[in-house]
Design a protein that fits this description.
Elements (H helix, E strand, L loop, with lengths): L1 H13 L6 H14 L4 H12 L6 H12 L16 H11 L4 H12 L5 H10 L11 H11 L2 H17 L4 H36 L2 H9 L8 H28 L7 H7 L20 E7 L5 H13 L6 E7 L3 E3 L1 H4 L4 H11 L9 H11 L8 E6 L11 H10 L2 E6 L13 H4 L5 E4 L3 H11 L4
Length: about 450
């Protein structure tokens, strides 16, 4: 049981539920006190000690029965009991007309023999069960394994055998009992396969390395992320931000004196016979000033959320950040983010601006930015837009975008869509693109972090 609980904890973590070592210890200590005989108390004990956030209760409720409610092995019945020798011989003769594989399965059904571990493992190999890590696929994989067993042919052959026995004058009560036993064995076979599939999926989930899962999520498109996977990336942003912060600080430190200006040095030292006694440097790299405009509509929410979280996690390496969010209007969100708890602030901002489909209006947001917050953009600012450039056929206000781009030191656009989609449908990206200093495709966290790493070291 202890090993099963450890596997359960691993599965919870892989689905995005944070279960610390201390919480696992609490669970074992609580079970020592209440025992495991009462199934409902056992469930509530694990639920109370392992789940600290109500958002993850559905994940717990989904996984718990798969780990702890598999029950005893399905019961098979020997349907040959009380058969006369002649009846048994008739069945044996009838079975010989089928293929070798089908004969083997018919014998198992009639004698009430379960599938062996080797047979189940072979079915697992045939259906690639080792690649499945989501319990939602249990029914699908069960059907695949039953098809590999040719279960429909087995059912049809069993009905034919029963009809033969009835035609031979088998006692009706005996025939009915045998039909009932064979039906029960068919259900037991399906239950055995389903139970095996569930246990294999759980083992796959438990043995999967967390870092491998995170590495895979780095390259998963934002639009394909589940809520659990998004929660994993929210936690990963903290580690990623620490790496970016250290890297940026080191670059700034190395560039503290600026780059050697050879021409200016030679000119200055002509009075010393061109002996370079006074060294001259070019302008130093300054901490960037950021103005960021994020589309937080349904199609862009994950990308914008992670972008804002990353940016505010490295605020000590940025001189100033003005953050704005928009869907159909502009919201200034820096005050919520300046409290030092960016993860909570981002959640609050997103809650204040419920996402929706087909209501994005970048043009109106650019108008709001130009009228109310124009002074936030100057020659020292890096103007960053996070969006897919889709404007629902509203006025893109290209005139305002050009004006803001000219006021800024650089205009960077982060777009999760491939450039082959620009200009299709309601996309205005081809109109904005010529006025951007640089455009990055940021369809996943790996591309997003690379874009941030690049744009924050520009002089």
């Amino acid at each position: 049981m202890d090993q099963r609980i450890v596997e359960f904890v691993g599965a919870l973590r892989n689905r995005g539920v944070r279960v610390s070592l201390a919480e696992s210890k609490d669970a074992f200590q609580a079970l020592d006190s209440i025992g495991i005989t009462d199934k409902e108390m056992f469930r509530l004990c694990l639920r109370a000690t392992m789940v600290k956030d109500s958002r993850y209760l559905p994940v717990f409720d989904e996984l718990f029965p798969l780990f702890f409610s598999s029950g005893p092995p399905p019961a098979y019945t020997d349907s040959t009991q009380n058969l006369t020798p002649d009846q048994a011989k008739t069945i044996a003769d009838a079975i010989r007309q089928y293929s070798q594989q089908l004969r083997k399965m018919l014998n198992k059904m009639i004698l009430g023999q379960p599938l062996s571990k080797e047979e189940l493992d072979e079915l697992s190999r045939l259906t690639n069960l080792d690649d499945v890590e989501n319990p939602r696929y249990q029914d699908w994989k069960t059907r695949q394994m039953m098809e590999a067993l040719k279960f429909d042919e087995i059912r049809q052959a069993l009905n034919e055998l029963l009809n033969i026995l009835e035609d031979m004058g088998m006692d009706p009560k005996m025939a009915e009992r045998m039909r009932r036993d064979l039906s029960s064995n068919q259900q037991a076979l399906e239950d055995q396969v389903r139970q095996y599939v569930g246990e294999q999926i759980l083992q796959n989930m438990s043995r999967q390395k967390q870092q491998e899962r995170v590495d895979n999520l780095y390259n998963r498109p934002f639009e394909n992320l589940t809520d659990g996977e998004m929660q994993i990336l929210r936690q990963e942003v903290k580690r990623l931000a620490a790496i970016l912060r250290t890297r940026l600080a080191l670059r700034l430190k190395r560039s503290k004196t600026g780059k050697l200006d050879v021409k200016s040095t030679l000119r200055t030292n002509q009075k010393y016979g061109s002996v370079p006694l006074e060294i001259r440097h070019k302008n130093r790299i300054r901490k960037p000033k950021i103005v960021i405009l994020c589309d937080v509509s349904t199609s862009m929410r994950h990308c914008s959320e992670l972008m804002i979280s990353l940016l505010y996690a490295i605020q000590d390496q940025i001189s100033k950040t003005y953050a704005f969010a928009f869907i159909d209007h502009l919201e200034y969100i820096s005050p919520q983010l300046d409290n030092g708890q960016s993860n909570l602030a981002v959640a609050q901002v997103l809650q204040q601006m419920p996402s929706g489909h087909y209501n994005t209006d970048l043009g109106t947001s650019l108008d709001d930015l130009s009228r109310t917050y124009l002074d936030s953009i100057d020659h020292r600012s890096t103007f960053i837009i996070v969006g897919d450039g889709r404007n629902n056929y509203n006025d893109p206000r290209l005139d305002l975008f050009i004006r803001l781009a000219r006021r800024s030191h650089a205009t960077i656009w982060l777009n999760p869509e491939a450039n082959t989609l620009w200009g299709s449908g309601d996309s205005d990206m081809l109109k904005y693109a010529p006025h951007c200093s640089r455009i990055f495709q940021t369809g996943n966290l790996s591309e997003l972090s690379a874009a941030i790493d690049h744009l924050l070291v520009q002089p």
